Amino acid sequence: MIKITDLTHKLIKEKTSINIAVDMTVGWGNDTLVLVSNSEFVYGFDIQKKALDKADILLKENGFANYQLINENHEFILNHINQKIDLCLYNLGYLPKGDKTIFTEATSTINSLKSVMTLLNEDGLIILVVYSHNKQERENLFSFCKTLSSEYDVMYYQVMNKENCPELITIKKVV
Ligand SMILES: C[S@@+](CC[C@H](N)C(=O)[O-])C[C@H]1O[C@@H](n2cnc3c(N)ncnc32)[C@H](O)[C@@H]1O
Fold first, then answer.
1. How far apart are CA 108 and CA 2, in angstroms?
2. Number of structural domains, the chain?
3. What residues make up the domain containing 11?
4. Residue nearest atom 19 of ligand 1, based on CA coordinates
5. Which of 88, 110, 115, 154 could form an SS bridge with 22, CB 3.0 to 4.6 Å?
6. Whether the Cβ atoms of residue 22 and residue 116 lie closer than 8 Å to each other
7. pLDDT at 1 over 60
């Protein structure tokens, strides 16, 4: 049975020629590692410096230097990036084996998404891994995605026969 995180990594690997990718929720850097392996350059955001420091070690240990980690709320992405983005990843919620009181929230997630969409290249892809424990964020995010114009293809993946599995949303800018 494929896990949602494996499916996320598969989608990243299937995307051809990623020049600029952004990891909006770096955490321990496991997803960032997949991004740097498949992109020319990766920007990564997280509000937890401790996690970014660990992620930095992981990326360096694996021989990568094609990234910049930014200790900032991803809501302020436009203060840091003014390049077109080919792929953007969100792994929402709290950091596993970390501080569970720090988690992504509806307002900043949706504000940041709106900013990312202004930078998204044609054919660009946004991937969101969503957890049901933050009901308000999930609800607001789903409502927001349903209102997006036909300039975007919005897809939704869910495990139908198991409870409490993360869900996956992809937003692709149509060429
Ligand atoms: C589910 S974890 C990410 C796990 C990560 N992808 C990994 O491979 O370890 C979510 C992360 O989002 C971060 N986060 C929460 N709110 C944020 C915000 N507004 N801006 C940036 N990062 C945020 C948390 O600190 C946490 O590390």
1. 30
2. 1
3. 4-173
4. 73
5. 88
6. yes
7. no
